[in-house]
Design a protein that fits this description.
Elements (H helix, E strand, L loop, with lengths): L6 H18 L3 E6 L2 H4 L1 H16 L3 E6 L2 H10 L6 E2 L2 E2 L3 H25 L4 E5 L6 E5 L8 E6 L2 H8 L3 E5 L1 E3 L5 E3 L2 H12 L3 E6 L17 E3 H10 L6 H13 L4 E6 L5 H7 L6 E4 L3
Parallel strand pairs: 1-2, 1-11, 2-8, 5-8, 11-13, 12-14
Antiparallel strand pairs: 3-4, 6-7, 9-10, 13-14
């Protein structure tokens, strides 16, 4: 704690946050967690603190996580080479077992324990639990990579009703019991939509959407779906940003009020976005 900050200043900060606390109280925020914030211990601690604080002031937070680098690392340890098609991991039967082990086992339970250490009540589930995320095969070239067909949101709702922070790993299943690897951003968008979330926060390794990808000062702080589609045509949204913005639009089309593409490298970025005037990253909203 910074001893140079007076109690009066701390009190002023809290009163400025009051309108945002009132706005989000009792509402659902889905946080898609990944990227640099997931592999940097200090940033990970900040994210967990942010989520616990929001939960304690009455915000219903759902944490959705991926874990691509950890999956690749485990595959290397087991002597299996990672392959990708159009940016998606080729997932054969052996690989999907590794994905399940890393996501639903190692990472999911580590996050649950971390949230508990910070004073939160968290419960880890996967998209296969309670048929939360039902899938079909997206592309035979990719193997067990899932296309989301249906979201059965009741397991998450039950946890929220009981005061837990649901921590969801992005695997799914089909009617035959096959397990599928699902893109984390896509899973978060579908879950947020099914929950009617007030906000979906997608943590990334960039500042947000930039008019000039090499100039952080050109950050676009807010735009509508219509404006985003124009930025596709203008070539401003390109490369790896395209699927992220696609997921933003998907979430809004499914009923999410707003989506934020957030720089996970910024300490306490989640709190900055939800409880301050300035926010962080790029806010995407539906057309008026």
């Amino acid at each position: 704690m910074d001893k140079n900050i007076t109690n009066a200043f701390r009190a002023e900060i809290l009163t400025q946050a009051l309108p945002y606390i009132q706005h989000y109280n009792g509402k659902i925020i889905v946080v898609k967690y990944g990227g640099n914030a997931m592999v940097n211990e200090t940033l990970e601690e900040h994210v967990m603190e942010d989520i616990v604080l929001l939960s304690l002031i009455g915000v219903k937070v759902v944490l959705v996580h991926g874990g691509g680098p950890e999956i690749s690392e485990m595959m290397n340890k087991l002597g299996k080479k990672a392959q990708f098609v159009d940016g998606l991991r080729v997932t054969d039967k052996e690989t999907v077992d590794i994905v399940q082990m890393v996501l639903a086992g190692k990472i999911n339970k580590s996050l649950v324990k971390f949230l508990g250490k910070k004073g939160g009540m968290a419960m880890g589930i996967s998209g296969a639990d309670g048929k939360l995320i039902e899938c079909s095969m997206k592309d035979s070239r990719l193997g067990y990579v899932g296309k989301i067909e249906k979201v059965n949101i009741r397991p998450v709702e039950v946890l929220l009703e009981k005061g837990y922070i649901p921590v969801v790993s992005t695997i799914g299943c089909d009617a035959e019991g096959n397990t599928y690897n699902i893109n984390g951003d896509t899973a978060a968008a579908y879950l947020a939509g099914a929950l009617g979330a007030e906000s979906l926060i997608m943590m990334t390794d960039i500042d947000g959407i930039l008019r000039d990808k090499d100039d952080a000062s050109t950050l676009i702080s807010q735009l509508t779906v219509k404006e985003a589609k124009q930025l596709y045509k203008d070539g401003v949204i390109s490369g790896g940003m395209i699927p992220k913005v696609d997921c933003c639009i998907e979430a809004i089309n499914h009923g999410v009020k707003q989506v934020v593409i957030l720089d996970g490298r910024v300490p306490h970025a989640v709190l900055m976005e939800t409880l301050t005037d300035e926010g962080a990253g790029t806010l995407v909203k539906g057309d008026e």
